[in-house]
Amino acid sequence: MSKVQKIMGDVEKQRQEMLKKCDDIYIVNAGRMNHGKSSLFNALLGHKVYKVADVRQTTENQKELYKDHIYFIDTPGLDANMADDEAAYSIYKQANFIIYVHNPRIGELHKKELNHIKHLAEILTPEYFQSHFAMVMTFSEEFLGKNKDKLDEILVPVRASLQDILGGDVQIFCISNKLYDQACDASDSRKQKVFLEKSGILALREFIDEHLPIWQQENVALQEKHFANLRKDALIQLEELRKQAEDEQKQHQEKSKERKQRVKTGFTNAIARIQQYTTRLNEEKNTVNNLKKSLSKLREKHKREYY
Question: For the stretch 4-34, what's the b/e string if a residue is b when 16 or more beta carbons lie within 10 angstroms of its beta carbon?
Fold first, then answer.
C-alpha cells in the first residue's frame, strides 16, 4: 500500500466513524450515589433496566437505547471511588445532555456537588454546559401540598448557586419516581393521569424529545468541523508527499544529468586523446619517413663513393 493510499484509507475510516457520531445522541445522568439517578432513567425509558436499591448498585457506565440512536447512560455515583469518577467523567465528554440528580431531602447542593458541576462545566465549557444541562430534584412527592414551600426554599439557593457557576439560568425539574410508579400501577385512568402529571416525568421526557433534533444538528455541525480539520491535515500530508516526490524526482534528474555529463565529458576526453594519439602517430610516421629518406640518401652516397 502506498503512502497516499494509506492516508486516503485513514480519512475514509474516520469519515465513517464521524457519520456514526452524527446519529448517536447520549443523555447522561450525574450526581452522587443513591439520589435516584437509576430510578429516574427507568421512568424516562418506561421500563426498568437499571438496578435500583438503597445501596450502591451502578459501578460502571450502563448504556440503554431510548429511541433510534438515542441512548441513556447511567453512571456510577460521583465520589464513590476514583475509578468510578474516571468512568463517569469519560462519558460526560461525549454527552449531548447531562441530567444532574439531587435529593432535596438533604437540603441544598452540597459543596462536593457544586464542585462536580464546576468540573463538568470546565470539561465542556460553561457556555456549552449551561445549554446542555438540567438539574433534577428527585423525591418531589415529599414536598407536595403543605410542604411545597420547603421545596421552594431549597430551589432558590440551588438556582442561585447554579447561576453563579454557569453565568445564566438553567433548567430545573422536580421529579417523583414514586408517583410515576404509582401511575404505572394505577388501574383508574384518571388517577393514572394525575400521578403522571405530578411525577414530572412527562415534562422532562417532553423537554428531551423537543431537543433531540437540535442536539443532532449540533452533532452534524461538530463532525463537519472535525472532518474539515481531518481533510486539512490530509491535504497537508498529501502536499508533503508531493513535494517529497518532486524533490526525489529532481534529485534523480540531477544525478542523471551528472551521469550524462560525466559520460559526455569522458567521451569528449576520449576523442581528444584519440586525436592526440593520431597526431602523434602521424608525427611518428613522418619521422619514420624522414629517416627512410635519409637512409636512402646515405646508401646512394655510399654506392657512389665505393663503387
Answer: eeebeeebeeeeeebeeebeebbbbbbbbeb
Residue 66, SS3 per DSSP: strand
**157 in a domain, yes or no?**
yes
Give the domain range for residue 102. 20-218
Half-sphere exposure in the Cβ direction for 181 (13 Å, CA): 10
Cell of residue 160, nine digits = 442561585
Q: What residues contact 62, with CB distance under 8 A and at least 6 apart? A: 50, 73, 74
Contacts of 213 (CB under 8 A, 6+ apart): none
By the 8 A CB rule, do 150 and 201 touch? no
Cα–Cα distance measured from residue 45 to residue 155, given in angstroms and rounded to the nearest whole number: 26
- 149 has pLDDT over 50: yes
Q: Do the bridges between strand 97-102 and strand 133-137 make them parallel or antiparallel, or are there none, so unpaired? A: parallel
Q: What confidence tens digit (pLDDT) does each residue in 150-164 have?
A: 888 999 999 999 999
pLDDT at 79: 62
State the pLDDT at residue 56: 46
Q: What value, to the nearest 5°, has the Cα angle with vertex 149 and ends 143 and 155? A: 85
- CATH code where residue 146 lies: 3.40.50.300
Is 45 among the domain residues?
A: yes
* pLDDT (0 to 100) of residue 253: 85
| Residues 1, 20: Cα–Cα separation, whole Å | 27
Q: What is the number of domains present in the chain?
A: 1
Residue 45, C-alpha cell as written in the block: 425509558
Share of the chain above pLDDT 90, in %: 22
237 within domain boundaries = no
CB 64 within 8 A of CB 74: yes
In a domain, 265, yes or no: no
| C-alpha pair distances (Å), 34 with each of 75, 82, 104, 120, 218 | 12, 17, 12, 20, 32
Q: Is 127 left (phi over 0), alpha (psi -120 to 50) or beta?
A: alpha
